[in-house]
Amino acid sequence: MTQALIVIDVQKDFCPGGALAVPGGDEVVPLVNAMLGDFPVRVFTQDWHPAGHSSFASQHPGKGPFEMIEMPYGPQVLWPDHCVQGSDGAQFHGDLNTDPADLIVRKGFRGEVDSYSAFFENDHRTPTGLEGYLRTRGVERLVLVGLATDFCVHYSAVDAARLGFDVSVCLPACRAIDLDGSLAAALEAMRVEGVSVTT
Q: CA gyration radius for the chain?
């Protein structure tokens, strides 16, 4: 089967010192770089929010980062402002080898809806176009790596499995936020959907 490596959101704002730092986020970089040569198709995703995005806590008076609110499309975690279009924090980690990328998918650019998954916005209806790209490349199997295990990697893996891809997540090349047990919940949700989680 044709395989693709999907590298999720290895951006400065998700690494130590960033606006929404994932503990150990930069530790995935050498692992991802080492994997790139093993795959004929390589896709990178990039969180790409307009300033004032509706998922930013700063846009909701009286609310703080990591609080939950209801949006028209369902529950939404409020985040610190991060990965704002054109900002330094939105750039890929400086040591990440992005030259082999066949495609870079930017997500979360619609101000009114967040986007964790590489395949759909958080309304679970608006596609990013990645599925069509992979189908036309003949890809059947996906290996996911990157940040964060319990949010964007998790949602991407579940959506990919539901779309009929053979999906695995390489845990050593991922790091999690682990918000109130979100990592354990994500791992279970991925397993339920048939995602292979490799350690």
A: 16
**Among candidates 80, 169, 153, 167, which has minimal Cα distance to 116?**
153
Structure tokens at 195: 């995602």
pLDDT of residue 193: 97
Residue-level pLDDT at 136: 97
Look up the pTM and report it. Answer: 0.96
Give yes or no for a contact between 150 and 40, defined as CB atoms under 8 angstroms apart.
Answer: no
Q: Using an 8 Å Cβ cutoff, are 111 and 50 in contact?
A: yes
CA dihedral 168, 169, 172, 177 (to 10 degrees): -170
Count other Cβ atoms within 10 Å, centred on residue 116.
Answer: 26
- The residue assigned the tokens 């089967």 is 1
pLDDT of residue 66: 93
Mean pLDDT in consecutive groups of 10 residues from the start of the chain, 199 residues? 95 98 97 98 98 96 95 94 98 98 97 96 94 98 97 97 98 95 96 95
Three-state DSSP class for residue 187? helix
CA dihedral 163, 122, 68, 9 (to 10 degrees): 80
* Contacts (Cβ under 8 Å, ≥6 apart) of 105: 43, 44, 45, 46, 118, 128, 129, 130
**Residues acting as catalytic residues:** 9, 107, 152
